[in-house]
Backbone:
């Protein structure tokens, strides 16, 4: 089930990442270009990594207890 949760959002992210850099004449909304799109995705990914590193919301109670025991 966990694998399905990771695979399911991939097509939507692929479409978004493939369409954002397109020039405006190839789609209805303005294109951002490849550099801006890459910087946007990098910022989002780094933000998520920092958020999870600070809040530790991705660590289960069992993992916390196991780390304390070591």
Residues:
């Amino acid at each position: 089930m966990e694998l399905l949760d990771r695979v399911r959002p991939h097509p939507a992210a692929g479409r978004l990442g493939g369409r954002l850099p397109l020039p405006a004449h190839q789609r209805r909304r303005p294109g951002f270009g490849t550099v801006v799109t890459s910087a946007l995705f990098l910022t989002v990914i780094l933000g998520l990594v920092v958020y999870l590193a600070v809040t530790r919301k991705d660590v289960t109670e069992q993992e916390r207890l196991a780390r304390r025991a070591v």
Notes: The chain has four helices and no strands. Helices lie at 2-7, 10-19, 34-55, 61-69. Residues 23 and 31 are 5 Å apart (CA to CA).
